[in-house]
Specification:
Oligomer: single chain
Strand content: 15-25%
Order of helices and strands: EHEEH
Strand order of the largest sheet: 1-3-2
Radius of gyration: 12 Å
Shape: globular
Number of helices: 2
Distance between the termini: 34 Å
Length: 68
């Protein structure tokens, strides 16, 4: 499963850090797609849940940073 993330929203280091926090380091692939990032998740049964968890962690991190 592929997810395109805008570089205007998140930088590369944030995307990698969230993958590490989610226990997905080495599982999620990171690729440049023009100025943006293409994240590749493994083609497994629970890929949708994995992507939703990852996106939720991105939002949580953003909320924690900007709420202070």
């Amino acid at each position: 499963m592929n997810v395109l993330i805008s570089s205007m929203e998140y930088d590369f280091h944030t995307l990698v850090k969230v993958a590490e926090m989610a226990g997905l380091a080495g599982v999620v692939g990171f690729h440049t797609a023009g100025d943006d990032y293409l994240l590749t998740f493994p083609d497994v049964e629970n890929a949708d849940k994995m992507v939703e968890d990852y996106k939720a962690r991105l939002r949580d991190l953003e909320n924690n940073i900007w709420s202070h």
